[in-house]
Structure formats: C-alpha cells, structure tokens
Design brief:
The chain is of the alpha/beta class. It folds into two domains: about 240 residues, TIM Barrel; about 70 residues, no CATH class. It is built from ten helices and 13 strands. Strands 1, 2, 3, 4, 5, 6, 7, 10 and 11 form a nine-stranded mixed sheet that branches. Strand 10 and strand 11 form a beta hairpin. It is elongated.
C-alpha cells in the first residue's frame, strides 16, 4: 500500500488543506522557519488546518542554514512554532553553504534542547547528499531519510508516482528513488514538485505502508487517532462529491438536479441505472419490447438479440444439412 502526502510553504499562501484531504492525501507538512532570519507567516494558519484535516499525520519543518548558529536557529524555530505538539521535519539542503553530517547532528541536538521530541525522517535530497555532503555515511542520524528524486511532467500524484520499487540508475553505480542513502533507508520519497493538488502545482511525497504505519512514523497520539476518523470521512465524501464538493468534471453537468455544477457519483450512477434499466425501478424500455414482452431493460434487450441471433444460426445450420 502507498500513501501520498504534501509539503507546503508560504509559496502556496492560504493553501486549501481540506481539498487536499478530499483528494485522498494522507499527510502534510508546512514550513515554519528558515535559518535565524525567516519566519513563515502562513505557518499559524497552516498548523491549525493540518491539525484539523490531517490529525496525527502532520508536521512542520525548518529549512536549515548552515552559516547560522544551531542554537539560535533552534530558538527562532521554537519561538515561531507555538505549541510543539507535532513532529519536526528537518529540511537539510543549504545549496549556498553546503552541509555535513556533523553540522546536522549539532542542529538535531539544538532542536531537542528547545523541547522538540518527535522527529520525522530528515529531508535530504539525494543530489545534495551526493554533491554537497560527499556521500558520507548517514548511520549516525537518529532517524530515516526523506529523499527527493523527481519524475517529469505535471499531473495528479497517483499518475506521476513511479512505483514502490523505483530506483533509477544515477551513474557510478549509484541508484536513486527508494534506494538507501548512506546506509539509511528512504522512508518517504518526494517524487514530484509539479503535481496537481487542490488547484495548485506543488511537491508530493509517497510513503510505502498503511495508515497505521504512517501514524506510527508521525508519532500520532491516541487522541489524534480518534479524531482521524473525521478525516477518513472527509476523504470518502470526496469520492462521492468530487475533490471540491462540486462534482466531477468527467461525469458532466448535473442537468437532472443542478445544471450549475458537475454530477456527483451517486447522480452519475442514477443516470447509468436509468439508461440500462429504463428507470430507477428497472421499468424497462418499450422500444425493446416485442409484443410478447412489453418492456425490457437494456441488458435484457441485448440478451434477447443474442438469443435471436443464436436461433437464426441454428436454423441456417439445419438448412445446410
């Protein structure tokens, strides 16, 4: 089983987390701070929305700047976080200043000193680990890896996803995708930055496992697990009423009930039923009757045609003898 998630920042502004949940996404993270000087103004709203729509499966992330004091970076993060009742995602990819395992470990210690106790896999793009961290062993990290390795194209996440065994060759005997990095497993894979989610083009991620395993990775509490039932109900509703609650484009306009929107799934089923059965109560079609039977459903009509065809074939074979 594979579950998909999103990570968002100020670039998406007032992102529609409810729509993302209806579209079937299972987890979400949002940027909190970057280095010691940047605080994401959209974080307070985002954390409330994620807690509501992704209970037990949401977090916040800090974008590390290696040229800053880890203790100061951690303090700024703590001040802007609010209550730290969520798992922290560390985004380690400072292309300006580089990085090292030793520096990353110092930052993890600093975040812990500020009170953070729950950590998601650390986000280290494979290209950054290869080019800026010299492919050093990551065995000393106390968590797994959140890798990024992108496919091309713009589409829905489920269509872009390259698969649970995806590990493309990268040269020099190295492999990407889900392949281990520095001796550590890749627990979450960011596989696109141009997926269609809630009307925007954003980063999407994959987790190989079921919802219970995802909850364990995020350190979900019993109370969060209880409230997640509401999120599951919202996801089911999205399958019936469309990702934005306004029907499905592919099912056409709801001419029978409300022509101003697209059809819901139940309305489309009713239309199909009417077409096949001649009405919601299987009344049948007079055009398919033959005197002996006044009305037939479409299925019965096709069956009758096949029966007549077989009878004609039998007569022709008998005449040839």
């Amino acid at each position: 089983m594979t579950l998909f998630g999103i990570d968002v920042s100020n670039h998406q502004r007032n992102f529609d987390f409810a729509a993302a949940k209806r579209e079937g996404f299972a987890f979400a993270t949002h940027k909190i701070t970057e280095g010691t000087g940047y605080r994401d103004d959209y974080w307070p709203r985002a954390r409330a929305e994620m807690a509501k729509h992704f209970p037990g499966r949401w977090g916040g992330y800090v974008f590390c700047r290696v040229n800053t004091d880890p203790k100061v970076e951690a303090r700024v993060l703590r001040e802007h976080s609010g209550a730290i009742d969520f798992p922290l995602q560390i985004d380690y990819e400072d292309t300006t200043n580089g990085g090292s395992v030793d520096d990353l470990l110092r930052r993890i210690d600093a975040y812990r000193a500020e009170g953070f106790t729950r950590f998601l896999p650390v986000y280290i793009p494979r290209w950054f680990w290869e080019g800026r961290m010299s492919r050093k062993s990551l065995d000393r990290l106390p968590m797994g890896i959140w890798n990024s390795d992108y496919v091309s194209g713009r589409d829905y996440a489920s269509r872009l996803y390259p698969g649970d065994d995806w590990s493309p060759a990268r040269g020099n005997g190295e492999r990407g995708g889900w392949a281990d990095m520095g001796g550590k497993p890749v627990q979450i894979l960011q596989f696109s930055e141009t997926a269609n989610v809630a009307g925007q083009s954003i980063d999407v991620n994959a987790f190989r496992g079921d919802d219970a395993q995802l909850g364990a990775l995020f350190g979900a509490t019993a109370r969060e697990e209880e409230f997640d039932m509401a999120g599951e109900a919202a996801a089911v509703a999205g399958q019936f009423f469309g990702p934005d609650g306004k029907g499905f484009e592919i099912l056409g306009n709801a001419v029978e009930t409300d022509p101003t929107r697209k059809r819901f799934l139940t309305e489309a089923v009713a239309v199909i039923l009417t077409q096949l059965a001649g009405g919601p109560n299987f009344e049948g079609w007079e055009q398919l009757g033959d005197g002996e039977v006044k009305k037939r459903t479409l299925v019965d009509g096709i069956g009758r045609v096949m029966q007549q065809n077989n009878e004609i074939i039998a007569l022709l074979k008998a005449a040839q003898k």
